[in-house]
Design a protein that fits this description.
about 260 residues; 9 strands; 9-stranded mixed beta sheet; alpha/beta; Rossmann fold
Length: about 260
């Protein structure tokens, strides 16, 4: 079965900034979708902030195996109802790939539970991205390291929970280092954060970057059946009959607190 990907883009700088428009005339979301479609295992659609429900309706998400997320200046405009909907799908098994400044997105913060803050500098300096685990599926086809000729510096400390694995670590001309590729598991869903992708540089046109994101889609795809939280607040019947032996806070059939 093909991997069904939805590429979500904020689509603000793409429309308002002349530099970004020159690099991504059809928007970053379309650039990402276009190179993903080159892989025969992937089918791809796009969604943007400006669409109704940000293009992430229940129907769209139910037909999505992996969601990629790029945002920068409009994180607060994403409505909480959509964020909660995306969270539920991730817990059920949908993969999430968070790109660049998506570290401050509502969905990334909600899934990780921390501020996700970091150090930064916009100076167009070289970023050298080192592979930490050459055997990981996300690094397939990548050499020991690759370079991004011009990048925005992201530096430690990066206020995120300890990841399951550091896939990449970046060094910048100014001397800083950054954990630039991290994996997490939340519920049944896999999450990959990948930092290179500043919009005023042609980073998503770079072959190594495209290879990493394509590999990440394949790694993030759901495994097995989706798990649905059907908790209705009611007490569970015992497998073996038992006698009630102590005082109860809730009456018969009364829903519990949540």
């Amino acid at each position: 079965m093909p991997i069904r990907v939805t590429v979500w883009g904020e689509n603000v700088h793409d429309q308002e900034n002349d530099v970004v428009k020159g690099i991504y005339p059809n928007g970053m979301h379309n650039t990402i979708a276009d190179f993903l479609r080159k892989d025969p295992e992937i089918i791809c659609k796009t969604a943007i902030l400006q669409q109704e429900e940000h293009g992430l309706t229940e129907e769209i998400l139910e037909a999505t195996d992996v969601l990629t997320w790029w945002g920068h200046c409009a994180h607060k405009q994403v409505v909480d109802e959509v964020v909660n909907r995306v969270q539920q799908r991730i817990l059920q098994g949908m993969g999430l790939i968070v790109l660049h400044s998506g570290h401050f997105s509502k969905i990334f913060g909600k899934m990780l539970g921390t501020t996700c803050s970091l150090q930064w500098r916009e100076a167009g300096e070289t970023e050298r991205v080192w592979v930490c685990n050459p055997g990981h599926p996300i690094t397939k086809g990548i050499k020991r390291y690759f370079e991004v000729p011009q990048s925005e510096m992201y530096g430690e400390p990066f206020q995120v929970p300890t990841p399951e694995e550091n896939i990449f670590i970046s060094w910048f001309e100014g001397g800083e280092v950054f954990r630039s590729g991290l994996t997490y598991k939340r519920g049944n869903g896999k999450i990959f954060y990948f930092s290179p992708g500043h919009e005023t540089y042609p980073i998503y046109h770079q072959e190594d970057i495209q290879m990493v994101i394509t590999n990440a889609v394949k790694w993030c795809r759901p495994e097995g059946d989706n798990w649905f939280d059907k908790f209705d607040g009611k007490p569970t019947d015992p497998v073996i009959k038992i006698d009630i032996k102590g005082p109860r806070l809730h009456g018969d059939g009364q829903s519990g607190l949540r």
